[in-house]
Specification:
It catalyses: O-phospho-L-threonyl-[protein] + H2O = L-threonyl-[protein] + phosphate; O-phospho-L-seryl-[protein] + H2O = L-seryl-[protein] + phosphate. The chain is α+β, with helices and mostly antiparallel strands. The chain has 8 helices and 15 strands.
Length: 321
């Protein structure tokens, strides 16, 4: 279309800008100006193998994992002794994990794993008890942990275990446990700690069925050889399962037992025998890798660029099914 008469006859109001040596800054189609920041997130892989004699029922471990808002995961190991009282030990651990997942976005929880444990425990009506660990990654890269009992967690950085939590126990093979009974422990007895993580750090967490049957150097080796967190979790669980049924394997569990004074009878010692072997148990493994995402500050947390594949939706696992 031809220009109007006024536009053709009127002198220009502004001088045309001189050509720039630098190309113009390309702006996003979403907003005139964008200021980006880095946030930490977890890419999470999981695997559960039940006790050989409990495979049909799915075992007594339960867990959940969620990569939203940085990332959170939890494991509960049902105490098998309740079976002697005709109580299914899996019911308590499964309900505890369901409640933990349900309260995750509760305003009172406010990204505090100890408060999440308190609310989940208070809402659990099943009879039983369980050891439990809950870990939450802040967007700043701080991992916050609340643990009751002997579920474990280790952080691997550049091929070295740089952080590990210690188990809580009354005596050997009798860990602290969250319980439906007043004699059990509560969220106030939890080991609460935090650790600052870096991009690329690997978190390995699991029930005692993992750490009773596998050494740190084996964990580091499998992590270094695995292409991703899902493959690593599966490989760790399968190796722990293999060791657990090997009566000739001198496992971390058997070594700890001997250090606490448990061993074969004296007459077997004379013949050179010693207490060895793996420990058959439910085995739950969670492997998580710290990654970063670029988030524009004026987008309220929407992700613009993401490194790696994250597991976005919450997953509550009640059994090996």
């Amino acid at each position: 279309m031809a220009a109007s008469t006024a536009s053709r006859l009127s002198p220009p109001r502004f001088r045309a800008p001189s050509p720039s040596l630098h190309p113009p800054i390309r702006r996003s189609r979403f907003s005139p100006v964008r200021v980006a920041k880095l946030e930490a997130v977890l890419s999470i892989g999981t695997h559960l193998i039940p006790h050989p004699r409990k495979a049909a029922s799915g075992g007594e471990d339960a867990f959940f994992a969620n990569s939203d808002a940085g990332g959170v995961f939890a494991i509960a190991d049902g105490v098998s002794g309740w079976a002697e009282k005709d109580v299914n030990p899996a019911l308590f651990s499964r309900e505890l994990m369901r409640n933990s997942s349900n309260f995750l976005n509760d305003e009172e929880v406010s990204r505090d794993p100890q408060i999440l444990l308190r609310k989940a425990h208070a809402a659990t009506s099943s009879v039983g008890s369980a050891t439990v660990i809950i870990a939450m990654l802040e967007k700043t890269g701080t991992l916050k942990i609340a643990s009751v009992g002997d579920c474990g967690l280790k952080v691997i950085r550049k091929g070295q275990v740089m952080f590990s939590i210690s188990p809580q126990e009354h005596y050997f093979d009798c860990p602290y446990q969250i319980s439906s009974e007043a004699v059990g422990q509560t969220y106030q007895d939890a080991l609460v700690c935090s650790v600052n993580l870096m991009e690329g750090d690997i978190i390995v967490s699991g029930s005692d069925g993992l750490f009773d049957n596998i050494f740190d150097q084996e964990i580091v080796s499998i992590i270094s050889e695995s292409p991703g967190v899902h493959e690593a979790a599966k490989a760790l669980a399968e190796l722990a399962r293999k060791h657990s049924v090997d009566v000739t394997f001198d496992s971390p569990y058997s070594m700890e037992a001997r250090s606490r004074g448990f061993d074969v009878p004296w007459w077997k010692k004379i013949l050179g025998a010693k207490l060895i072997g793996g420990k058959m148990d439910d085995i739950t493994v969670i492997v998580a890798q710290v990654k970063t995402v670029v988030v524009p500050e004026d987008e309220g947390g929407d992700t613009e660029e993401q490194k790696g594949n994250e597991q976005g939706a919450a997953a509550v696992v009640a059994s090996a099914e």
